[in-house]
């Protein structure tokens, strides 16, 4: 039987004595000092504690008052953590709404461009009012698949130079679908599809289009430019240098052919030639 220290209150009938402070105690923890009594469990691992222990013999967690103080800190921190998570969710929601509204605006502008209407944000003027006298809404059904594809290609390239990657990803599938409607696509169309693949991070698809061009015309400048860009996008520096060397060799005799696709993409050809200097 434990003898209480001098001056300690004798235990009442049926009560035990705290092994730490000697005060009368009942339950699982001493009401005076918080020392664990018989049957007390660790707040961390639920192991039954040794009466009078300061730490859990299994996991080392502080027993008694220390454990309760740590629990109080946790309960105080928890509401702030929940509030922080809620704030992050709200920010993500607002960002998503802004992105959707931006994408919708871009989609409206693309439709106007495909139909031939001026773009308010790009040209500084508003689109004409189709209800005004003498103004007819453009008929997109009169456009060929190639015309629609070319308009979308030009828009995607402009968006890419402006750094609007989300808009590029949004319009790319529309453009590819338009090109796929072209029967027997020529080198120009394949180059356009390959360039879209490059700016959207689909280097393997660009390589397929380049190979299709070069299989028919091994010295075609657009095929060599696209193959070089696809190699660079894939991290193949050796392949990129090889295609650049072929491009330089083929430059003069190919440009002498004055092909329409060379005239349309002369800037891409010049940029590719200058990239290796």
Kindly describe this structure.
With 277 residues, this protein is mostly helical. It has a domain at 142-274: Tetratricopeptide repeat domain (Serine Threonine Protein Phosphatase 5, Tetratricopeptide repeat). Helices cover 58% and strands 1% of the residues. It is built from ten helices and two strands. The protein has helices at 65-115, 120-123, 145-161, 165-180, 187-199, 203-216, 221-233, 237-255, 260-264, 266-274, and strands spanning 16-17, 24-25. The chain has a two-stranded antiparallel ribbon with strand order 1-2. A hairpin with a 6-residue loop joins strand 1 (16-17) and strand 2 (24-25). Helix 4 packs antiparallel against helix 5 (187-199) and helix 5 packs parallel to helix 7. The longest helix is centred in the first third of the chain and has 51 residues, at 65-115. The model is unreliable at 1-9, 65-80 and 113-138 (pLDDT under 50).
Record the SSE blueprint.
Elements: E1 16-17, E2 24-25, H1 65-115, H2 120-123, H3 145-161, H4 165-180, H5 187-199, H6 203-216, H7 221-233, H8 237-255, H9 260-264, H10 266-274
Antiparallel strand pairs: 1-2
Which labels suit this protein?
277 residues, mainly alpha, Serine Threonine Protein Phosphatase 5, Tetratricopeptide repeat, two-stranded antiparallel ribbon, 10 helices
């Amino acid at each position: 039987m434990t003898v209480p220290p001098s001056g300690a209150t004798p235990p009442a009938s049926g009560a035990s004595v705290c092994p730490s402070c000697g005060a009368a105690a009942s339950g699982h923890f001493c009401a005076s000092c918080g020392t664990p009594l018989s049957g007390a469990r660790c707040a961390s691992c639920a192991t039954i504690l040794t009466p009078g222990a300061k730490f859990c013999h299994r996991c080392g967690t502080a027993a008694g008052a220390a454990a309760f103080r740590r629990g109080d800190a946790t309960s105080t921190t928890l509401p702030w953590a929940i509030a922080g998570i809620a704030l992050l969710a709200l920010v993500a929601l607002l960002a998503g709404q802004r992105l959707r509204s931006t994408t919708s605006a871009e989609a409206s502008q693309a439709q106007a461009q495909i139909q031939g209407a001026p773009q308010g944000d790009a040209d500084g003027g508003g689109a004409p009012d189709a209800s005004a006298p003498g103004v007819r809404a453009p008929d997109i059904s009169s456009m060929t698949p190639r015309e629609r594809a070319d308009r979308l290609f030009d828009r995607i390239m402009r968006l890419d130079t402006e750094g609007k990657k989300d808009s590029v990803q949004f319009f790319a599938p529309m453009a590819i679908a338009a090109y796929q409607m072209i029967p027997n696509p020529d080198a120009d169309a394949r180059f356009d599809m390959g360039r879209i693949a490059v700016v959207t991070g689909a280097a393997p698809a660009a390589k397929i289009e380049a190979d299709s061009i070069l299989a028919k015309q091994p010295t075609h400048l657009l095929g060599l430019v696209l193959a070089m860009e696809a190699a660079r996008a894939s991290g193949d520096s050796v392949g990129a240098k090889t295609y650049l060397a072929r491009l330089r060799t083929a430059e003069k005799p190919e440009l002498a052919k004055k092909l329409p696709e060379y005239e349309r993409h002369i800037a891409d050809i010049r940029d590719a030639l200058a990239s290796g200097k």
